[in-house]
Specification:
heterodimer; A: alpha+beta; Beta-Lactamase; Helix Hairpins; 64% helix; B: alpha/beta; Chemotaxis Receptor Methyltransferase Cher, domain 1; Rossmann fold; 2 domains; 7-stranded mixed β-sheet; 3-stranded antiparallel β-sheet; 10 strands
């Protein structure tokens, strides 16, 4: 697969004697690369292994070259050529590339490629061509081998060839001679041609063999010289060609091995260096750290001087003994100890601080690691313990630990509020000093907090008093406000009432006034009535007089009628009619007199009644006068009422204003008192909180102070609810009216 | 007297006053003359303070914006509530001596008496009426007193029926013993009316100038010291409505300074500030 990767113009020139070795499978997938290849190409080994070899293919290289390469390889023939390759970052390098199939059991299984450095780019093309020619002639050999091969050629192959030729040609010449003699020219010609051909072929064979052998010998000698980079004609078709190719493959293989062995050598050197480094490190450790080695069953194999010194034993005393020699017998018999060794046997190391027992039972603290050492099969075969004697530090640490534990305890008590606890253990030096400082600090805290609490208690008592006072004040102000409100309501209604009264008085006044007018009018009427009565009286008297005249006339008429009757009687019969008339007249006169008399009586009666009526009317007039007088008085009084009401109204307005102002101030006072009360209650609560906080501390000097129950409103004995107050506040933040329906219960009420 | 703005804790202007009195008049019909300027300040400054405003302008705005929250408190604040047990006792004597005997005969068939205490304030009046009725009418009679007021706060207080001992100072020992309980411990200094009285009284909020929900005919109505707060037209209207809701030949009692002279033709004066429906 052709991958179009970026390329650069930078050439990488390999150092001399650098062989780039790769192995690929039959599909060109890389199965091995040597270090040099990795170094030059810039790819990592991981990138290369498993990749196709064309990962290093340079785009400048023609496809035909590769076709040629693969044609050779597929024909199980080695191939060589000069190829431009690319590195990972796009740089390029030229190499002479030799590839050979590697056969296993007669079949090509893989390809081995070795690349050599070639001369710089400028001469490359020429070199390439030259190489081509050289490979065709296959006449490269070292000067050292030239004379020898010539000698060999002259002495051996040629002589033997000539002898063989002579031996073979002589019978033919004889035969030729026979044909000539028989004048069989056709046969003679054929034979001559055959002889000539045979001679040419043989000569060529000899020449080839000679040349080939010479080349082989040359190559062999170069192999002796460890120079496996060979140039040979790989395209030759005969057995020599096979031979060359085999040699070429051998050379490739040798070079590959050489490269490998060089690298191995390098690795070995490096390993050796590392090993030496390790050894020196171990020596250094040995000089600075106690080391002891055990068998896997715990038997002591060896120990260094530092270990022996730390434990107080001599080497002889411990070799062959069990590890438990160094541990507490109780621990030695414990499950933990057993497990400890079991884990080491599993190859698990153990690091920590170990309390161990030295000679004579002395306690030794070792900071150590038990390291199971594994054999090639990964199985532990011994345990090496690297240790550091930390006995001194541990003992010192223990004191420190104890000291800090003591301080921690005091601090914990402090944190829990206990100021009575001190460090009681004895310490020397800096520890002792520190202990004293800590104890002193705690005592100081105790002292200060005790005093703070005393002050707080005092302030609390005061604040309770202030709170109570303020409450009282607040309540009184509230009470006063309520009372004022009630008064204001009274005044308000009183004002309304007075105004209503004034209004009514005004109306009454009007009524009275009209009454008086009517009464006066009545008086006038009465006067007219009296006058009319008197006139009636006078008329009656006149009527009486007229009646008495009538009566007189009637009497005279009667007398005249009597006289006439007498005269008529005298006149007899003639006078009888006249007598009847006279008698009638007399009757009339008598009836007139009677009527007059009756009229007179009536008139007298009427006059009498008129007199009485006049008296009544007079009385009425008097009464009306009295009414007018009384109404005048009433008018005066009502007028006074109206005036008084008006004055009252004005006065009440002033009183109202005064009350309003008083109410205003009282309300402000009540509000302020309530604020003060709230503030003092809040203060009291805060102080109680503070005391509660202080009670957290346990002190030597005082018994914890009891927090007083929350300040309740201390209500003055005069306290009364505002039953008449209409404006019960919707929400009172602090003080509530002493009584609400919700809170009252039946057992709070009794019969009168 | 003319109103004048003064430097006060809370700034109160004529505009504020006019706004507030207009609002109160529209709702309650209560007449607020200029002289009530200071009274308004005094009564409403409590609300202003409690609500945390710095002047009345803010309060007016609040009232405008939140009538559902503040209007009741506003009305409660500006109403005047003054009352006492057996105030103007002559009315109760007239009840005992004239009204009740007549009702005992007139209503002997129904054995029902219905009374309305309009403007009951903190409840002293309906409780006084209740006492008078229960003392003089057989127990098997059905007696109900409707007690109404515009001010919900006083109604609450009235329905609780708890008063200071001072408020019952003028009541005879017999009555106290019969109709009151005395508070002790936390209720010390208080008295509570007997549940017997509470049982026959129904306390309701009612705005007299609005529609009246009750239909029944009342045997007598107490509406004392209420009319003084209304203008003439309202008084005439109320007198007419009272006459309408009273049963035939029934009574209306008004305050000692009040008069229906020239206000009603349907009600005639039968005793001091006591009127009777003339047919």
């Amino acid at each position: 697969m052709k991958v179009n990767m970026p390329i650069t113009d930078k050439e990488i020139v390999m150092s001399k004697d650098t062989f780039l070795v790769t192995r690929t499978d039959l599909d060109g997938i890389i199965t091995y690369v040597n270090d040099a290849f990795v170094e030059v190409t810039g790819f990592s080994r991981e990138e290369l292994l498993g990749s196709s070899h064309n990962i290093t293919r340079h785009p400048d290289v023609s496809e035909s070259l590769y076709q040629d390469l693969w044609k050779s390889l597929k024909a199980d023939k080695p191939w060589k050529g000069i190829i431009k390759n690319r590195t990972k970052n796009g740089d390029y390098y030229w190499s002479e590339t030799n590839i050979t199939p590697i056969f296993t059991k007669g079949k090509a299984r893989e390809y081995l490629a070795v690349r050599y450095e070639i001369k710089p780019d400028a001469q490359r093309q020429a070199t390439f061509q030259q190489e081509k020619r050289k490979s065709k002639t296959a006449k490269t050999r070292s000067d050292a081998t030239k004379g020898f091969s010539k000698l060999l050629k002259e002495l051996s192959i040629w002589k033997k060839g000539m002898i063989a030729m002579t031996v073979l040609i002589l019978p033919n010449i004889y035969l030729l001679y026979l044909f000539v003699l028989e004048k069989n020219f056709l046969s003679t010609g054929i034979l001559c041609f055959l002889i000539a051909t045979g001679f040419i072929v043989l000569r060529d064979l000899l020449a080839s063999m000679d040349c080939g052998l010479e080349a082989i010998v040359g190559i062999s000698y170069r192999f002796l010289n460890d120079s496996f980079k060979i140039s040979t004609d790989l395209s030759r078709k005969d057995q020599l060609g096979d031979c060359f190719r085999a040699l070429f493959s051998l050379g490739v293989k040798f070079n590959a091995d050489l490269a490998s062995s060089r690298e191995n050598e390098k690795h070995l050197k490096e390993k050796d260096l590392i090993n030496k480094d390790y050894v020196r490190q171990i020596e250094a450790i040995d000089k600075s750290q106690p080391i002891v080695q055990f068998k896997m069953d715990g038997t002591i194999i060896s120990a260094n001087d530092l270990f022996l010194n730390a434990m107080g034993y001599t080497l002889a005393e411990i070799i062959g003994r069990h590890h438990r020699l160094f541990v507490d017998p109780i621990y030695a018999n414990s499950v933990e100890y057993k497990r400890f060794w079991e884990q080491l046997n599993l190859g698990q190391h153990d690091i920590g601080e170990y309390k161990r027992v030295g000679k004579g039972g002395k306690t030794v603290y070792l900071h150590a690691s038990y390291n199971p050492i594994l054999d090639n099969d990964g199985k532990p075969y011994k345990v090496v313990k690297y240790a550091a004697d930390v006995t001194q530090e541990t003992l010192s640490n223990q004191t420190l630990e104890k000291f800090f534990s003591d301080i921690g305890l005091v601090m914990e008590n402090l944190a829990n509020g206990d100021l009575t606890q001190h460090i009681t253990n004895d310490y020397e030096g800096l520890y002792g000093q520190c202990k004293n400082n800590v104890n002193e600090a705690v005592s100081k805290f105790d002292d200060v907090f005790s005093r703070v609490r005393e002050v707080a208690n005092f302030v609390e008592t005061s604040s309770q008093e202030i709170s109570a006072g303020n409450n009282n004040l607040s309540h009184r102000a509230e009470q006063q406000a309520a009372n004022l409100e009630e008064t204001a309501a009274s005044m308000e209604q009183l004002t309304g009432i007075v105004k209503s009264t004034a209004h009514n008085a005004k109306e009454a006044n009007q009524i009275v006034n009209s009454t008086r007018d009517l009464a006066i009018k009545g008086g006038d009427v009465v006067k007219l009535a009296i006058a009319a009565m008197q006139e009636i009286n006078e008329s009656s008297n006149q009527i009486a007089e007229i009646i008495s005249v009538i009566d007189e006339i009637a009497f005279q008429t009667n007398l005249l009628a009597l006289n006439a009757s007498v005269e008529a009687a005298r006149a007899g019969e003639q006078g009888r009619g006249f007598s009847v008339v006279a008698s009638e007249v007399r009757n009339l006169a008598q009836r007139s007199a009677a009527a007059a008399k009756q009229s007179n009586e009536l008139i007298q009666n009427s006059v009498q009644k008129v007199r009485t009526g006049t008296a009544f009317v007079d009385q009425t007039g008097q009464a009306l006068n009295e009414i007018v007088e009384s109404v005048g008085k009433a008018n005066e009084i009502v007028g006074k009422i109206a005036v008084a009401s008006a004055e009252q109204t004005s006065g009440l307005d002033q009183v109202n204003l005064a009350i309003v102002q008083l109410d205003e101030i009282t309300q402000q006072n009540a509000a302020l008192a309530e604020q003060a009360s709230a503030a003092s209650i809040s203060m009291s609560e805060q102080i109680n909180n503070m005391i509660a906080l202080l009670n957290f501390f346990k002190m030597k000097s005082v018994v914890n102070y009891q927090i007083k129950p929350k300040t309740t409103a201390i209500i003055a004995s005069t306290s009364k609810p505002q039953a008449a107050s209409a404006q019960t506040p919707v929400n009172r933040p602090l003080t509530k009216p002493p009584m609400t329906a919700n809170t009252t219960t039946d057992d709070e009420w009794e019969e009168f | 007297m003319t109103i004048q703005e003064r430097e006060r804790e809370f700034k109160f202007t004529f505009d504020d006053f006019n706004f507030l009195r207009k609002l109160s008049n529209e709702y309650s019909g209560i007449q607020v003359p200029d002289e009530r300027f200071d009274m308004f300040y005094s009564r409403l400054s409590k609300r202003v303070r409690r609500l945390g405003f710095t002047n009345f302008k803010e309060y007016c705005q609040y009232l405008k914006d939140n009538p559902e929250l503040e209007f009741t408190d506003f009305i409660n604040a500006i109403t005047t509530n003054l009352t006492a047990f057996f105030r103007e006792n002559h009315h109760f004597e007239y009840l005992r001596d004239h009204v009740i005997p007549e009702l005992l005969i007139r209503n002997s068939y129904t054995r029902r008496i219905r009374v309305w205490s309009a403007g009951c304030s903190t409840g002293e009046e309906p409780y006084s009426i209740a006492m008078t009725l229960l003392e003089n009418i057989p127990a098997n009679w059905d007696i109900k007193i409707l007690a109404t007021d515009l001010d919900t706060a006083v109604l609450k207080s009235a329905s609780e029926g708890i008063y200071t001992e001072e408020r019952v100072a003028g009541i005879s020992d017999d009555r106290l013993k019969h109709w009151f309980m005395r508070g002790k411990s936390t209720q010390s200094g208080q008295v509570r009316v007997s549940p017997q009285l509470q049982n026959i009284i129904c306390f309701k909020q009612l705005n007299l100038i609005q529609e009246w929900p009750m239909k029944g005919q009342f045997d007598f109505i107490f509406c004392r010291n209420v009319l003084i707060y209304f203008d003439r037209e309202t008084k005439i209207m109320l007198a007419k409505r009272y006459a309408h809701i009273l049963a035939e030949r029934s009574w209306l009692f008004i305050g000692h300074s009040e008069s229906l002279n020239q206000l009603s033709t349907e009600l005639e004066l039968v005793a001091c500030t006591s009127y009777r429906k003339n047919k």
